[in-house]
# Entry
Amino acid sequence: EVQLVESGGGLVQPGGSLRLSCVVSGFTFSSNDMHWVRQVTGKGLEWVAGIGTTGDTYYVGSGRGRFIISRENAKNSFYLQMNSLGGEDTGVYYCASGMSGWIHWGQGTLVTVSS
Amino acid sequence: QSVLTQPPSASGTPGQRVTVSCSGSYSNIGRENVYWYQHLPGAAPRLLIHTDNQRPSGVPDRFSGSKSGTSASLAISGLRSEDEADYYCAAWDASLRGHVFGSGTKVTVL
# Structure
C-alpha cells in the first residue's frame, strides 16, 4: 500500500520559518518526482514546488527565493523548507507524487502563519 | 489570478451530464498534458484524468476528459450526489517552468 505522510506543520509567526517533511512508502521513492501542493485558506489548489529524481528543483513564482525543496532517497523522504512566511502562506500543504499525474497524496499538514 | 481559467460553479440534477471547462494558452494546455483532480473538503485531492483523457484505475467511466487547442474539458455523466466537490484542471507551463492549477469549479448536485 502506498503511503505519504506529512509532518512539520504548525503555528509560526510572520517572517518565521518552518520545515515540512513527507515520508513515503509502498513505491520506489528514488524513481519518482515529488511535489508539494497547497490550498491556501479560502482559495484553490496551488502547486508549490517539485523535485526530480536527479535533484532538479522547480518552484512556484511566489516561493522562489523563500522555499527550498530537497529529498533524501536513503530515508524515502523529501522536505520543504519555508522561510520568510507570511499570512498568504497559511493553508494545508500536501505532498504528492505519480508517474503520470499526482495519483498519490498525503493527508495534508496545516501551516498557520499568525502572530 | 490563475493561469488556467475555470468557471467558478456548475450544477446539475442526479443523472444529468455536467461539463467543466478549462482555458489556458499554448505554453500550458496547448503543448502539455492536462490533468483533472477532484477535491472534497477535508480530503486529499484525487486524480481523475491524466494525459488529457486517460482514467486511472478505479475512476468510474462516468468521468471523461477532452482537449482541443488551448482548452480542455471534464465531463461527468450520470451525475451522482457523491460527485459534489471542487474540480481542478492542471498542466505544466513551459513559460513559467512550473505546474499550474485552474481556478477550480464547484460542482453542485441539485
